[in-house]
């Protein structure tokens, strides 16, 4: 059996509370033929000193001026040599046999991408871990769209995936213009250039929530990045799957999900989003609500309900 080199690429910014746990989880892997590329993205806390205190020859630490997670991932990739790439976040946690199980699942004869199972835990409490449902069967990207995009649940945590280097070189690196939801756009291109998406229920990624990370950011810049990411991803898919009505509906739902989230705070983007939907299909995605919001939605509609909630600061 061959043991290909695996590059673990980690962007980190002000992760002093968690980075040591992430690094220890990697250096304690049972799979030893790996390199660890860490890009310290202009941290202003003790992240740099913590990483430098760890003595492991497989670690390559690169210091850069803050340029965002996508830029840091690209720098890490360009400094890597692995046949396979894993993009972990600086606060992720994995079990000691995670990489072994991922390598055992991937086939060197195909350009499949392997996704581990995953779930969330909060802050430092691994006991709070709640695992998401992971299918057992491999699927195509079209099937992925029919399952996840149609229901607007496309989240792909970067650390779940072990990706052949050749696939990244073919599909392109991370889009550095995106500050939020860049994983959607990146993995849309990766999946398009992959034969199949192979699920691995045996390997498990622990995704940390509740740390005020990038995914929790709000405001105009975040809303713009979210919309552009969805817009670009939808257009990648529509260019690849031409004239497929099911695909068009899933894309319309994805855009509609943004409108439900952003309206009426960022009307310049939601107006543009509605124009894009009009070219595709009538969305089947319903406005999710509960309690008094559900009551108001039934009487005056979701738009007026959201306007009222904004006016009263609710």
Key words describing this protein structure:
3 domains, 42% helix, globular, alpha/beta, 314 residues, Spore Coat Polysaccharide Biosynthesis Protein SpsA, Chain A
Write the layout of secondary structure elements.
Layout: E1 6-12, H1 19-27, E2 34-41, H2 47-52, E3 59-64, H3 69-78, E4 84-87, E5 93-94, H4 98-105, E6 113-122, E7 125-131, H5 141-149, E8 161-164, H6 165-171, H7 182-192, E9 197-209, H8 220-240, H9 245-262, H10 267-278, H11 291-300, H12 302-311
Parallel strand pairs: 1-2, 1-4, 2-3, 6-9
Antiparallel strand pairs: 4-8, 5-9, 6-7, 6-8
CATH fold-level label of the largest domain: Spore Coat Polysaccharide Biosynthesis Protein SpsA, Chain A
Helices, by number, come to 12
End-to-end separation in angstroms reads 59 Å
Give the C-alpha Rg: 20 Å
Count structural domains: 3
Q: In the CATH hierarchy, what is the class of the largest domain?
A: Alpha Beta
Unreliable sequence segments: none
Overview of this protein structure:
This protein is an alpha/beta fold and 314 residues long. It folds into three domains: 6-216, Alpha-Beta Complex (Spore Coat Polysaccharide Biosynthesis Protein SpsA, Chain A); 220-283, no CATH class; 288-314, no CATH class. Helix content is 42%, strand content 19%. Strands 1, 2, 3, 4, 5, 6, 7, 8 and 9 form a nine-stranded mixed sheet that branches. Helix 9 runs antiparallel to helix 10 (267-278). The longest helix is centred in the C-terminal third of the chain and has 21 residues, at 220-240.
